[in-house]
């Protein structure tokens, strides 16, 4: 591929033409919901002594992915929200962040850019290669594939084959959900050019596949949000947070008609009023076919005052993950919906109608939601919608 790109050798990656001062920049891509954020969180927790700088690019106006990554490590990410990095973000903005992260004071060993699920990886790779910063070197393209949805994704987007052909490493994720995992692995291998193809569940791959790790004792901790933003007070959040009960069709640059995201719309929804679990389940059960991805956090108010519920829908797959509210956290529902041919106004109205008007929890109200909560040991698979 390009100068500086890595090759996998017997399960380990090697950065070529990298001087000791140069920090590899790894592009982490993959279709909507394939498991990029899950993999990035795994890397952040399992990178031994290596210090990772993360740049997270969300498609929707609310930065759900950035929250998921930052939430795990105390705001140690840079967020480039509302639009695919490959079009909507100015190259110079990416350069500014790369420069900041690559500054020797940060002590960062590797930078991972998590692309939005609709980004064009070759554009991202081009942007990294175009950076003239001497302190960084392109570190390779990692593509995450959802093994359970792979056939469907390829049918919807034949362009995915092209993305795989460019990859240096393909993580075939969600092996636990794929009844024909062997078939998917063979297919992916036939579509890649030179990539290592690694099966995974919940993105648990050896970080050494992506970069050379330092021993654990060298770990010096993650950076603060301020470190990454250069103490300039700019938090990179341009979403419509705090806009109660509000929803909006997010604007995306449609110059690049050949891009995956040209056919997709996203809707963001924020509410300070808790949602009623039965109404939300009715909404989710009847969600339109084109609404491929839902992610975010739900406040069910008195129905569970201790937890917010992270929600993920990918195709017909649906899960809720209860997470304790932080003491200083705003009790908000924040959702991003992404799909093709979706009616943003109607979806927004339907979500607004899910807001609760009852002051008390009804006793069995959460049952429908709890069907989609995974057991703590992660072994059982709750029922999926018909
Ligand atoms: N069963 C199963 N679920 C997984 C696995 N990996 C991720 N998930 C779930 O899949 C959903 C989507 O995962 P994410 O990591 O948010 O996917 P993403 O690629 O970052 O999503 P986008 O940012 O929308 O493109 C979440 O509910 C994850 O918990 C896996 O290996 N097995």
Automatic annotation (TrEMBL):
Region (Disordered): 225-253
Record domain CobW C-terminal: where: 264-355
Stored Pfam families: cobW, CobW_C
Keywords from the UniProt entry: Chaperone, Hydrolase, Nucleotide-binding
Top-level taxon in the UniProt lineage: Bacteria
Keyword Endoplasmic reticulum: no
Keyword Protein biosynthesis appears in the UniProt entry: no
Matching PANTHER family: COBW DOMAIN-CONTAINING PROTEIN, COBW-RELATED
Protein name listed in UniProt: CobW C-terminal domain-containing protein
């Amino acid at each position: 591929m390009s100068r500086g790109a890595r090759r996998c050798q017997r399960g380990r990656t090697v950065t070529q033409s990298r001087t000791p001062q140069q920090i590899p920049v790894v592009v982490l891509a993959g279709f909507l919901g394939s498991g990029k954020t899950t993999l990035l969180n795994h890397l952040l927790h399992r990178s031994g002594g290596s210090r990772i700088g993360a740049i997270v690019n969300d498609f929707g106006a609310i930065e759900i992915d950035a929250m998921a990554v930052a939430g795990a490590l105390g705001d140690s990410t840079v967020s480039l929200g509302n639009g695919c990095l490959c079009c909507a973000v100015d190259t110079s903005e990416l350069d500014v962040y790369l420069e900041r992260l690559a500054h020797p004071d940060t002590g960062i060993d590797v930078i991972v850019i998590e692309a939005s699920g609709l980004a064009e990886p070759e554009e991202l790779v081009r942007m990294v290669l175009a950076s003239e910063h001497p302190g960084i070197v392109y570190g390779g393209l990692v593509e995450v594939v959802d093994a359970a949805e792979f056939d469907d994704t390829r049918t919807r987007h034949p362009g995915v084959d092209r993305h795989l052909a460019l990859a240096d490493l393909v993580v075939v994720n969600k092996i636990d959900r794929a009844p024909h995992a062997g078939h998917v692995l063979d297919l992916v291998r036939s579509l890649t050019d030179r990539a290592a193809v690694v099966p995974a569940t919940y993105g648990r791959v050896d970080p050494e596949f992506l970069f050379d790790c330092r021993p654990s004792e060298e770990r010096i901790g993650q950076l603060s949000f301020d470190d990454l933003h250069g103490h300039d007070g700019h938090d990179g959040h341009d979403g419509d947070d705090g806009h109660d009960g509000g929803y909006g069709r997010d604007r995306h640059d449609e110059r690049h008609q050949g891009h995956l995201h040209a056919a997709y719309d996203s809707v963001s929804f924020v509410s300070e009023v808790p949602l009623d679990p039965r109404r939300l389940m009715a909404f989710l059960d009847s969600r339109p076919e084109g609404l491929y991805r839902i992610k975010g956090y739900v406040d069910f108010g008195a129905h569970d005052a201790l937890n917010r519920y992270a929600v993920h829908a990918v195709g017909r797959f649906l899960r809720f993950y209860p997470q304790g509210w932080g003491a200083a956290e705003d009790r908000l529902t924040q959702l991003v919906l992404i799909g093709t041919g979706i009616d943003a106004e109607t979806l927004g109205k339907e979500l607004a109608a899910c807001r609760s008007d009852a002051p008390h929890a009804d006793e069995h109200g959460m049952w429908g939601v709890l069907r989609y909560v995974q057991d703590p040991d992660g072994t059982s698979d709750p029922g999926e919608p018909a």
